[in-house]
Amino acid sequence: MSQLEELKAAIRGHLDSLDCVIGWEEGYDPLHATPLFIHTEADLDRLNISPLAVHNLATYATGFKGTKIGIVVRGCHSRSIIELLTEKLIERDEVVLFGLCCDGVVSQRKIRAALPADPGFVEAVEIGADELEITIAGEKTTLKVQDVLADKCRICAYPDPLLADVLIGEKHAERPNDVGLACQDDFEAKSGAEKLAFWQDTMSRCIRCYACRNVCPMCVCQDYCIAGSRDPLWMSQENTPAENFMFQMIHVSHLTGRCTECGECERACPVDIPLMLLRRYMNKQVREVFGHQAGITLDKTPPLLTFQVEEARIKERDW
């Protein structure tokens, strides 16, 4: 039985006791997936779990609070669920997790860059063991999955769900938890002036659409967001690099120690701003100073949501 059929069978067995199960289906063309809200067995025919199914469905969990739902989760998505549970933003008995052992998902940005021309409307996509064959205007292009794998998947230490009621697929061997990305190392090696110039140039592209905020599973205070507050007025709607960067710094500060590095903010950005450079950097600081990594266990509160007079890993008295 394939992973997809095994997942369908598992969901079918729970469907009567759930208000909804959230998975993925084919989107507006064969190259894109979109979230699928499963209410009946007939909806299962549209379920898709290919490497094109990239959305972190944990983003929807808080919107269903007070009901009982099922969510299909990969490894990084399960970390988001764990973090939501840790912060008591959702209740464990209100969610059934269908876990997928994950071999990675693709980056649409990398696919666009690898195609010989603007993809326009994609006619067909054939997914093999290690290749994608994409048909556009009758012309076929073959891409290696490894070449278009999302960056987060290249360094993922948790490809299998850390929390699941049903587990689909075979678990992977344990992976190292300290693998870095060349782009991150290159960025952190820049001088302060170079980093400032980089962000001034990059944030000039930002259109303040708030897609990064809206898609983030941990950004749950959108109705009270500081970016929308007018009393007090913390930020203007002026679209300048300074104001845009101010919003991103507030956003990343609110996520520090809570971000599970699912990459949704960067994926959703319509102007391709490398937002994960900020998230990974701040998470690295929390890991080094507090020994904390978000979404790994249910019994660890993010350090910036707690207060201790003296932190065990900060030797103030030695200064």
- Give me the number of helical elements: 10
Order of helices and strands: HEEEHEHEEEHEHHHHHH
The biggest beta sheet, please? 5 strands, mixed
What is the terminal separation in angstroms? 61 Å
* Integer average pLDDT: 90
Class by helix and strand content? alpha/beta
Instruction: Identify the strand order in the major beta sheet.
Output: 2-1-3-4-8
Taking Cα atoms only, what radius of gyration do you get, to the nearest Å?
Answer: 20 Å
Q: Strand share of the residues?
A: 5-15%
Descriptive report:
With 319 residues, the chain is an alpha/beta fold. It has 10 helices and 8 strands. A 5-stranded mixed beta sheet has the order 2-1-3-4-8. Strand 1 and strand 2 (33-38) form a beta hairpin. The N and C termini lie far apart (61 Å).
Question: Layout of helices and strands, plus pairs?
Answer:
Elements: H1 3-14, E1 20-26, E2 33-38, E3 69-73, H2 75-86, E4 95-100, H3 108-114, E5 124-127, E6 131-136, E7 139-144, H4 151-154, E8 166-168, H5 182-188, H6 192-203, H7 211-215, H8 241-255, H9 264-268, H10 276-290
Parallel strand pairs: 1-3, 3-4, 4-8
Antiparallel strand pairs: 1-2, 5-6, 6-7
Helix pairs in contact: 6-8
